């Protein structure tokens, strides 16, 4: 089942649990009409007939037909090793906090586009819009295709109405920088007031969790974390070339790989949202420090101290725990007043990173203000200064600290001398 999701759309249709919604048989044996798609008369032109044969249906609008194809996935269908049904039972509480919106599966629309370029200007045309959503015990992907440039206005208007529905939340990957601004610009081009739904861009939480693991943050790179493997997938950069060829007269079959790529992207969005939601609910563990540090920084900002502490400890236990993981943990402990443990980490960092002055600066502060051991504070401050560039701003700060500690030591020595004279 999982392998079928990595093949072309036609192969997907032959797989149990996957079907074209508009072609599925109802219990009575008749093909069930799917909302919002409504059947129209058999198209007359060869191009329209080709679209209809490929499973697209024309939605009549005052501005012309909009061609849409829906693919339905049974909730038991696995993608990336997990059934779509798992999303319906997932706790979205912390993900809602991240999105700053009240998330629920029935309100979320997973959105991805294919366009003729990477810009946002008038020359960039989004020719394929995919919307994934949960309905009627299925995960569905509706693909809105623009078969020629003149047909775009009708598609944009219909999509604008869809996105304007109350309480909807769109979910994208890099959509705040690309997909959504491009769609907004197309709305403006056609004289429409752009809708303003809540928007969760999964790129940002994914980057915080896995940037240190996968490096590049393209969606295909993150799929490796999810257990999603694509076989025979057309590169996204080829999509515009395929579309240009289609507009010039190439058969629709040349676009099927693009449709498949787009559909997979939307399925990955749902799978990624599940992974991030479960990570935020502390139902995930990794053999890398970076994801645990990412979670810890969220929990720290949300004042969920116990969860932050647990995630920091998991992070520093990993073999790849680097400077950042241990340093952020030490500062967390400092803010929580756990000075002894924090100072132990600073001393370890000072030993493991002999060119970094920061841990020695913290050690100097600790001995000066918490332990009142000025001799050790001076020793740590001088060691930190030795690691600094004399032209750096921090060098002046540590020099002033050293001077202050020396004055304190002199006053302390004077006080001790006076006390001995009194005796």
UniProtKB/TrEMBL annotation:
SUPFAM superfamilies recorded: Ribonuclease H-like (SSF53098), TPR-like (SSF48452)
Species in which this protein is naturally found: Alicyclobacillus sendaiensis PA2
Keywords assigned: Coiled coil
Region (Disordered): 18-46
Name used for this protein in its record: Ribonuclease H-like domain-containing protein
Boundaries of every YprB ribonuclease H-like domain copy: 109-273
Keyword Transmembrane helix among record annotations: no
Parts forming coiled coils: 374-412
Domain of life of the source: Bacteria
């Amino acid at each position: 089942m999982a392998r079928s999701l990595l093949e072309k759309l036609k192969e997907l249709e032959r797989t149990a649990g996957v079907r074209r919604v508009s072609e599925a048989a109802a219990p009575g044996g008749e093909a069930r009409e799917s909302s919002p798609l409504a059947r129209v008369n058999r198209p007359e032109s060869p191009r329209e007939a080709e679209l209809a044969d490929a499973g697209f249906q024309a939605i009549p609008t005052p501005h012309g037909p909009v061609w849409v194809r829906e693919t339905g996935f049974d909730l038991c269908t696995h993608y990336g090793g997990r059934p779509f049904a798992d999303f319906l039972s997932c706790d979205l509480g912390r993900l809602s906090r991240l999105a700053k919106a009240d998330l629920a599966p029935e309100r979320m629309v997973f959105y991805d586009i294919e366009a003729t370029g990477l810009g946002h200007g008038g020359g960039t045309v989004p020719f394929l819009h995919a919307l994934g959503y949960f309905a009627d015990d299925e995960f569905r992907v509706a693909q809105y295709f623009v078969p020629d440039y003149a047909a775009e206005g009708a598609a944009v208007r219909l999509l604008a109405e869809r996105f304007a529905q109350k309480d909807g939340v769109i979910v994208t990957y890099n959509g705040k920088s690309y997909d959504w601004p491009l769609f907004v610009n197309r709305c403006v081009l056609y004289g429409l007031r752009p809708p303003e739904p809540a928007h969760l861009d999964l790129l940002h939480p994914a980057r915080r969790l896995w940037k240190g693991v996968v490096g590049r943050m393209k969606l295909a790179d993150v799929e490796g974390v999810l257990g999603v493997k694509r076989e025979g997938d057309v590169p996204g950069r080829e999509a515009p070339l395929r579309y240009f060829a289609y507009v010039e007269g190439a058969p629709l079959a040349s676009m099927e790989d693009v449709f498949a790529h787009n559909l997979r992207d939307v399925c990955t969005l749902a799978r990624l949202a599940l992974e991030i939601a479960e990570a935020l609910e502390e139902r995930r563990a990794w053999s890398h420090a970076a994801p645990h540090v990412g979670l810890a920084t969220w929990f720290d900002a949300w004042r969920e101290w116990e969860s932050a502490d647990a995630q920091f400890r998991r992070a520093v236990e990993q073999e790849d725990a680097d400077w950042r993981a241990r340093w952020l943990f030490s500062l967390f402990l400092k803010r929580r007043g756990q000075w002894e443990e924090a100072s132990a980490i600073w001393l370890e960092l000072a030993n493991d990173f002999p060119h970094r002055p920061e841990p020695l600066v913290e050690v100097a502060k600790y001995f000066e203000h918490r332990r009142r051991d000025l001799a050790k504070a001076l020793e740590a401050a001088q060691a930190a200064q030795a690691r600094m560039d004399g032209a750096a701003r921090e060098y002046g700060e540590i020099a002033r600290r050293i001077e202050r500690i020396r004055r304190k030591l002199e006053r302390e020595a004077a006080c001790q001398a006076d006390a001995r004279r009194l005796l």
